[in-house]
TrEMBL record:
SUPFAM superfamilies xref list: Ferritin-like
InterPro entries per the UniProt record, alphabetical: Aromatic_CoA_ox/epox, Ferritin-like, Ferritin-like_SF, PaaA, PaaA_PaaC
Phylogenetic placement of the source organism: Bacteria, Pseudomonadati, Bacteroidota, Cytophagia, Cytophagales
Organism from which the protein derives: Roseivirga pacifica
Signal peptide stretch: none
Name of the molecule in the record: Ring-1,2-phenylacetyl-CoA epoxidase subunit PaaA
GO molecular function terms listed in the Swiss-Prot or TrEMBL record: phenylacetyl-CoA 1,2-epoxidase activity
Amino acid sequence: MSTELLEQKFNEKIDQEVRIEPKDWMPEKYRKTLIRQISQHAHSEIVGMLPEANWITRAPSLRRKAAALAKVQDEAGHGLYLYSACETLGVERDDLLADLHSGKAKYSSIFNYPTLSWADMGAIGWLVDGAAIMNQVPLCRASYGPYARAMVRVCKEESFHQRQGYEIMLTLCKGSEAQKKMAQDALNRWWWPSLMMFGPTDADSKHTEQSMRWGIKRFTNDELRQKFVDVTIPQAEILGLTVPDKDLKWNEERGHYDFGEINWEEFFNVISGNGPCNKQRIDARKKAYDDGAWVREAANAYAEKKAKKKVA
Ligand code: BYC
């Protein structure tokens, strides 16, 4: 079959919402875009474990420790499903990791900010996982089968993460003045970086148009950001906290909240490697990879031994 015909059949499938599977023909650009997006997502999960793992030993009770531990383990699992989904596109996991370590591959900007207090665990669960759910639930309908299926379980677990975060915030806000202040401080620091998670404005997003056509993205960055603001403001009101945006106000005509200008200079600075914790995060991932070399060697040696036994 000619490439034109293959492409036509592929486009028909996309139009009819038929999932694309690993052995199906796909345009090279579709494959590359998926590898970029899925691997960035996988890296985000793995790097995202770092700022929270930092708080497991300092969580204020056994119950909080158990929940934090479970959340961080879930994120390791999400990374693994996503790396596996990526491997179905014909890339090696080691190459993906090499790209993360060299700085060639991106991961979410949000994980380049420090976690300074216990309230940050609440704010991350509430806002960061809340933003992740907003972005990822539509991806359960992504056109590429392995990605969409991975996303179903990821979203279920993210929903537990969001609730545990919000419950931490509720507890702090119902506590002493000092605890409420801690919660407000965490909201002040995490609000704007959470809005940045959705990526540049639609006008500046170079991939959105094509990715929407391919069903790799289902909503634009600005659409998702607006949905997030709209659901999150009433939650902040229940907590009795103030969102740090003087331009925030309900717009009756639009039926949405209006909100202030994001500091895009900060965003582009963070995604180009110059955020407050970029170096620390990549150094930690490189160290974990190097420290795990003996495990990979042992697993490979065992696999070889087993294969030889089978032949003999
Ligand atoms: N951080 O054309 P655009 C999570 C890059 S949540 C860093 O709009 P696209 C978690 C973008 O890669 C986070 N880089 O791109 C939560 C592109 O650069 P390249 C992970 C960003 O791909 C809690 C350039 O900017 N979620 O995992 O159409 C606990 C232009 O942007 C960011 C996902 O990855 C950013 N925030 O849209 C633990 C979800 N935003 O590659 C873990 C799946 C943009 O051309 N991904 N860039 O050099 C997506 O939905 C999309 O990839 C994005 C960006 C909306 C993130």
